[in-house]
Amino acid sequence: MHTFRRWVTATVTVVAVTALGGCGLLGGSDDNAGGNDKVEKATVKVGIIPQLLDIAGFERARSAGYFGAAGLQVELVTIKSATEAVPKLKTGELDFAFGNWSSFIAAQSEGAADLRAVADGLQAKPGMTALVAMPQSPITSAKDLPGKSVGVNALVGNVTLTSKAVVKAAGADPGRVQFKVIPTADALNALKTGQIDVMSLQEPNLTMAKQKLGAKVVADRATGPVADFSISGYVAPAAFVKNNPKTTAAFAGAMAKGQGDLADQQLVRKTLQDYAKLDPGVAQAVGTGVFPTAVEGARLQKVADLMLTYGDLKKKFDVGPMLYQAPAS
User: Fold this and answer.
1) What pTM was computed for the model?
2) Sign of the dihedral through C-alpha 154, 156, 161, 167
3) Do 31 and 37 form a contact (C-beta atoms < 8 A)?
4) Options 1.10.1270.20, 3.40.190.10, 3.40.50.300, 3.30.365.10; which CATH number does 129-226 get?
5) What is the pLDDT of residues 238-256, one digit of tens each?
6) Which of the two ends of the chain, N or C, has the fewest CB atoms closer than 10 A to its terminal CB?
7) Helix, strand, coil in percent for the chain, rounding step 5
């Protein structure tokens, strides 16, 4: 399989490119924007997949002015996936990028990029991501999935990886499950019209499926072998981190504050409602997950180990060199 096909994102909604404003008034608008008394580079370009639950910490940091206070002006660049982000990070079109960890780990392990994990995004917890079926479906658990079709956003990536783990944990053979790529924008319709038997969904789509279709949960994708699974985060090129230590530390620090604020579940829902333009009823019902304030090597290693188990990596991979080390203060 060609290398780039392994950088598959496990994310959900993809929207059209929109003009999104940054925060703060420091720094210029071009690629060679200078620094200030706080950072080497005041204007940073950040690749973001809009409207996801995963980016709530980033959006909180923006709305609360944490980036501006750290000396940064954030210029958003809309991307569709971590796959798209990797080459843009290599060429300097992006300074930081959001995406799912399995995609970034695959790119790093195959030598497609040299990345540093500078901030966490979303950690799964029960109730926020699941395999669902229509209410009249005879499928009631993961044991029923062999021989059935399961809609996923990509054949290689976080969604399929965790789905396989859940099926195996239920005592069934994940190799007999028919995984079928369904664009997230089409997920609810594909489920409703019977194009697939089961759909893998994450919030806020999970709540929308329950409310609009009466969908039932067949298996939670955040339990057993994938409990506390690290879903997504933010990376930067190793060279950028080395050459811009203050800038990287400022970004990581602002992200940590934004993530930390989201220990308040109502603030998560309010933030999500504001940037994703959700119906208040959906925003109040979503399962919100966990927003870690730092990247933990043990959790990231768990992702790499699971990727090896299901063939997404060719050999065991040590995530240690990917972990960002903040400069000594």
Assistant:
1) 0.84
2) positive
3) no
4) 3.40.190.10
5) 999 999 999 999 999 999 9
6) C
7) 40, 20, 40
